[in-house]
Amino acid sequence: MKLPNEIEGYLASKNFSENTRSNYYYDLISMYHFLEDKVVSEESLELYKHQLSKLSASAQRRKISSANQYLLYLYQNQKIDHFYKIDQIAQKEKKQAHSYRPMIKEFPEFYGPMTCPGQFLALLILEFGLNFAEIQKLKWENFNWKFKYLTVEKSGIKRVLPIREKFAMRVKAISNADELFSKSRQFLYTELKKFTHYSSKEIREQYILHQVKAGKTIYELSALLGLSTTTTLEKYYR
Question: Which one, of 80, 47, 98, 87, lies nearest residue 64 by Cα?
């Protein structure tokens, strides 16, 4: 039998965020199109697995995991009459030099008494992974100090990010944040540079590294950052 297209039903049965749902849909629709003119079997699934071998190790694992979850759903819902499972691709041992392993930093100097706009910017990037474009769209009302969360909207999608007490106790007394948020990108860049020699990109990468260390999956981290795909994050999961 051919592989049924029950992707929408499968995704509807899961409590996925919009970003995670989008990532699963992309993986599953790719598999469906590959198998569309083939009979679903151990052999055709092995062919699908083989064509994934050109991808990064993390992408291979993700796509095979997505495929296996979908195949289980089809079997449990009697859409296919046999339970198929694709084995993960055995990875060749790579030389350490090829691994992307930046060091995690703690930045204790960021958490001293608030002294300048650049320090506030550094904390926004380190605590929430925001870029300058997202910071410029913030409003002070986006910070809910009672329930400790920050709402960020990007391309019509709202993200709700937890606020740590470590951050709240240093910045919630600020009274003119909206004035800073309204400034130009160049102004924000200059103010950050006055406070630290680390760039916004370097600080944002530290946010990513800390989330990976905390056990966030690539899909969860993608959702936290408001990314439409996981491509730019794959190097952190190899």
Answer: 87
pLDDT band at 225 (very low <50, low <70, confident <90, very high): very high
On whether residue 101 sits in a domain, the answer given is no
Domain that holds residue 130: 108-237
Residue 111 is a catalytic residue: no
Q: Are residues 119 and 82 in the same domain?
A: no
**Average confidence (pLDDT) over 202-218:** 94
Catalytically annotated residue among 24, 204, 207, 219:
204
Q: Would residue 154 show up in a list of annotated catalytic residues for this protein?
A: yes
Point out the catalytic residue in the list 154, 183, 193, 235.
154
In a domain, 180, yes or no: yes
Split into its structural domains, the chain has a count of 2
pTM of the model: 0.60
123 within some domain: yes
| Known active-site residue 204 | yes
Model pLDDT, residue 137: 94
Q: DSSP characters for 103-138?
A: PP---GGGGSS--SHHHHHHHHHHHH---HHHHHT-
